[in-house]
Amino acid sequence: MSYLSPRNSPLASVFAGLPPPPVPLDQVWGDDGVDYRYRFAVYDIHAYPSAANAVYIFAARQGLTYIPIYVGRAESLSRRLSSHERRDEAIRRGARYLLVHVPAVTDLIGYAEAERRLIRHYAPTLNEQHNLLPALLAR
Q: GIY-YIG domain location, by residue (predicted)?
């Protein structure tokens, strides 16, 4: 991942006087060989941002690196997060950040495809139903 430090980060007010955390820009290739850049807004793990057709990541952070623990998608992000069955488990595993990507109307990759590509790329531990690697290693 590469990072930028924007001035208007959603977390800027949380860390009064401190620089905002970096916003990740990530480039992920799909099975079709097409690469795509995802830009994520960064929030506190307990936030309920309002967004439609969004991809979100519960993530931990080590230095300047975000570690995806769970990747999901939502038609209504605030509604999905209000009763999310994996958030508490993600927090127990170290997640402190919510990263949100909302594809633009002009984007070639919609939110469902973005979720699939990000899960395949990162193989987050809480995406077991999509992540075959742990099952294969257990054999």
A: 51-128
